[in-house]
Amino acid sequence: MRARVNIFPAAAGIATLKTLRELNPYPETAALAKIFADKTNHYAQKNKLAVHCQAYGGVFTLFFTAKEHINNLEDVKSCNTELFAAYYRHMLSRGIYMSPSQFELNFVSTAHRKQEIESAADAAVEFLAQMK
User: Fold this and answer.
1) Could you give the residue ranges of the DSSP H alpha helices within the chain?
2) What distance in Å separates the CA atoms of residue 131 and residue 83, rounded to the nearest whole number?
3) CA 103, CA 116: separation in Å to the nearest integer?
4) Across the strands, what pairs with 59?
5) Domain 24-129 fold
6) What is the pTM of this model?
7) In this structure, are strands 52-56 and 59-63 parallel, antiparallel, or unpaired?
8) What is the layout of strands, in order, in the sheet containing 59-63?
9) Longest dimension (CA), the chain
């Protein structure tokens, strides 16, 4: 028996990879993730809040902890997940869909623009202001 192969998904995948190589959106997505992280970290540090947003490339996550860097699963487990749940609900109420768990990442895509990331960071800071 011969296996039936659908070549269209493979062709679509190859075309996507070629487009990504040509457009190289990674520096832009990294810059946008940094905008969110910088704004939330600046507010948290200025107000001495136990919050840290960690970003790498085009991904970021907000952690409710006094740690400045999250390095492993144990670090994440030590974070305040109840506060994260309240943050998630706050963001959702503002129409901003974040990852629903502190154990997941938020991905910046080529569809996101600076204004949208800044608005999301403003909504996060609005939540952080309630922590004071």
Assistant:
1) 7-23, 26-46, 73-77, 81-93, 114-129
2) 9
3) 23
4) 56, 107
5) Aspartate Aminotransferase, domain 1 (3.90.1150)
6) 0.88
7) antiparallel
8) 52-56, 59-63, 106-107
9) 67
